[in-house]
Specification:
This protein has 221 residues and is an alpha/beta fold. It is built from 11 helices and 7 strands. Helix 1 links the parallel strand 1 and strand 2.
Length: 221
């Protein structure tokens, strides 16, 4: 059975475009099971009834914020992967989505030609982020003084390696190849990292790693 995706987007034309792009040509190896919703209310209903594998959500909905839907998804299951695709590229929106539990953040103006590739990246453990958003975050952290890590969690050298690759947005399998270990070994390190940082998503882990100075931007470039 193909992964299930809930698309929550209020603009009908955009919503159908996303849905058709994700459904593909019907090939089971190249398509997803897609459900759509046009509002926060309908999105909550769909989440409660279906608990999809991936939530693809806009932040600007007619009856509320997509951030509320992200929080709802995290309450339902920490296994739901969340990809934001929106017009909002301001710091408040980006950080709010990451802190709420988003695994990736795409701007509609920079949306990839193949949306399925971004969803597959999320399903593989990656964190797709639009170039302008990535630059924005990097500039923010370059101008933020890192706190003294001696008061924070302690990481092994291998955990730091994994964190660096997470900041680069690499999926588990690719990170495993670079480090010369198995995918399960990388997943084990990620689980330990989440526990030490007290987070539950890749986006939160990347945010904390950068803001606490655990991983430097020079090492992730």
């Amino acid at each position: 059975m193909p992964p299930s995706i809930l698309v929550v987007e209020d603009d009908a034309e955009t919503r159908e475009y996303f849905a058709e792009a994700l459904r593909g040509d019907g090939d089971a190896a190249d398509a997803y099971d897609v459900t759509t919703a046009a509002s926060l209310t309908k999105g909550v209903e769909a989440l409660d009834n279906e608990s999809p594998d991936v939530l693809l959500v806009d932040l600007g909905l007619p009856d509320g914020s997509g951030l509320d839907l992200i929080r709802r998804a995290r309450m339902i299951s920490t296994d739901i992967l969340i990809l934001v695709i929106t017009v909002f590229g301001d710091e408040t929106s980006v950080l709010g989505a990451i802190e709420a539990g988003a695994h990736g953040y795409l701007l509609k103006s920079e949306a990839p030609a193949d949306l399925r590739e971004s969803v597959q990246q999320v399903l593989s453990g990656g964190a797709p982020i639009s170039p302008r958003i990535a630059s924005h975050l990097l500039r923010r952290f370059r101008h933020t003084e890192s706190p003294n890590e001696s008061n924070g969690p302690k990481f092994t050298p291998r955990e730091r390696d994994v964190l660096t690759l997470m900041v680069k947005g690499l999926p588990y399998l690719e990170a495993a190849g670079i480090l010369g270990v198995t995918r399960n070994t990388v997943a084990g390190h990620v689980k330990s990292i989440y526990a030490k940082l007290e987070v539950s998503s890749r986006g939160e882990a990347v945010y904390e790693a950068l803001s606490q100075g655990i991983v430097t931007l020079d090492s992730a470039d």
